[in-house]
Amino acid sequence: MRKKRMALAIAMAFPILAAAQEAPSKALGVVTITGGQPTSLPTQIPATMEGITREQIDQTINATDSEDALKYFPSLLVRKRYIGDYNHAILSSRASGTGNSARSAVYADGILLSNYLGNGVGGLSFPPRWGLVTPEEIERVDVMYGPFSAAYPGNSVGAVVEYTTRMPTQFEAHGKAGFVVQPFSLYNTDETFRSWEVSAGAGNRSGDWGWWFNVNHTDSESQPLTFPTRLVAKQGTPGTAGKPVTGAVLDRNNANEAWYILGTSTQYHTKQDHLKAKVSYDFTPAVRAAYTLGVWQNKSSGTSQTYLRDASGQPVFSGPININGVAFTPPLSASDFPLTEESLTHFMHGFSVKSNTQGTFDWELSASLYDYDKDIKRQTSGTNTPPGASSGGAGTIADGSGTGWNTLAARGTWRPFGAKGAHIIDAGLQQDSYNLDYLTTNAVGSWLNGPSGQRVSDVGGRTRLRSIWGQDAWAFAPDWKTVLGGRYEHWQAYDGRTRIPGGSPAVDTDWPARSENHFSPKAALSWQFNQDAVLKAALGRAVRFPTVQELYGATSTSNSQFVNDANLRPEKSWTFELGAEKPYGNVLTRGTFFAERTKDALFSQTTLEPTINKNVTRVQNVGRIDTYGLEFVANGTDVWMPGLDLQGSVTYAHSVIKENAGFVTTPGDTIGKRQPNIPDWRATAVAAYHWNPQLTTTVAARYSGQQFRTLNNSDVNGYTYQGVSKFFVVDLRAHYQATKSTSLAFGIDNVNNYAYWNFHPYPNRSYVAEVKVDL
């Protein structure tokens, strides 16, 4: 048992992985993946890598969604607001914030889950499709930091996450039931929200055939996520106009201005169903074909509540209001208290044929498809507010059906001097295609079930990325190795359209096609300066091309003139890291210095549009952002006493805008300011004590320091709606293996009940209970 725990800790701390049952040997700071279900990551990884296994997730993490497996990884944060968060759970890394979903890459068994149709959140949201993986099917998770492998596009600039899911070697079956309770108190809301989920999976291998399936159902209630507000000074006028109301909560916004909180909105009740089926066939002992089908369904209702009461104590949802002798504009409407109904059905397909001879040459052909088969969001509009809106009335229908992406890839690994030779060469061809098709119309009759009527907006287009890449891991001298590579990319954007019939003036534009070519070199050098210590450096360029939504998504000026910039330049980043890895007794340590310079970063901001002589807020290029920092990681088994496993990380990042022609309020107000959503300090700590082979208890903590959401850093108050706050959160978990096949777990997330924010409020203290059966 002690040997096994040591192997797991090594897998977490070092960029060298091996079979789950035995500790790996170090080999020049380059990762070699062996044993078990193979990852899709390149056979030779030239940079920092961390990993976690199924056993570690079971024992130490209250994992209700697949992204929870990343909870304690160094320098990572997923902005998960509630269980089943399908539209805002964006991954943040060392130099990429939670508004930049297109600056990380998430895969499951080599199938792309990251959504590069857009970047970030807003009217449309583009987080990875986490729901296509459940915690119960995860075999392990690997993370590569930075754009140092030529095998990945420039979206890998932040991190590459690879989920490897189960593919059994003999019959097995699994079942899980979990329940979460969150007592939530904020402003005038004091309620308890509940979530539950059930999951079942089974698989087998018989002769040349293997199969696996997993089904999952989640029923989740979120806490309120948004709040209607009115600014006291800017939206209030002393006087008697409007209906006198009570119940509003006086607070301060992120700029420290006084405002009233009028109620809650976007409180979701979400029901999700997941199905994953995998089948494999071995043509020979070294050549395997595999097919994966994923189905994800989501039905979600968003509700609103008002804090306001009139003189007779009745709730107030609409019309002009007066609070303490101050009349407020605009009057209350559906934008303050929206009701939403979403119905989504998405399909994922993946197919691959690969060889694994470990001889002179191995190859792989793969294809994947992600399809928005049905993607409908209905929402109230105009003056249609609760309670009357609950039964119908005016609203809109946003239809993204037909949206999606597909990938094609061919790759090979050549070992010209054998498996233990001086060179291991990886190369490949790749095509990634994206199609955004989003139509918004007015509902005819009723927003709940009426057909589509007059068009409100029609936004869409396509991008395509074709790439050729190669890299060579070359052991050019004893104790030395270099990895040299490059990626050439041809990017196209075409069929773009922006149609806003009701704009001022109306917009009906077909955008011209465009294309660009870029080359991104990669280089890494490692030196094993003694038997158990490695020093390595890596340098890589990454080009992150604009997404369809950034190019053609509708934005507006202050007078509703819709203007887009279809000529956005791609982001271009140079990233460097220098690290050392060494064990001290039972503790494995890593220290890494990292630096990144990004030119033409893509953010929403304001500039003067000379064609109309007006300020326009839209996605634009930020001239230059410089980031540097330090990351320290330590992991140990049987530290201080038998059975005590410790792991922790500390990251410091200094990320500053150096050049920018745009602004937020006044020209130049972003220069010298910090990049949004990058905290100065982050830290994680996990202490797991194995009382005996059956019982493990865990105390874990997460810390994030000061950060800002705006480019000019004007949001100085993080502890409020639309703010981004510091946080220190402690989680507990107890895992008990009751029998050989049955385990029980109880946990508390945010046991210290820290009230923290990332625009929306994060969950309060939550109690987690689960039971699992493994046959």
Automatic annotation (TrEMBL):
This is TonB-dependent receptor. Residues 1-20 form the signal peptide. Keywords: Cell outer membrane, Ion transport, Membrane, Receptor, Signal, TonB box, Transmembrane, Transmembrane beta strand, Transport. Belongs to the TonB-dependent receptor family. One of its GO terms (cellular component) is cell outer membrane. CDD domains: ligand_gated_channel (cd01347). Residues 379-388 have a biased composition (Polar residues). GO terms for biological process: siderophore transmembrane transport. InterPro entries: Beta-barrel_TonB, Beta-barrel_TonB_sf, Plug_dom, Plug_dom_sf, TonB-dep_rcpt-like. It is found in: Cell outer membrane. It is a multi-pass membrane protein. GO terms for molecular function: siderophore uptake transmembrane transporter activity.
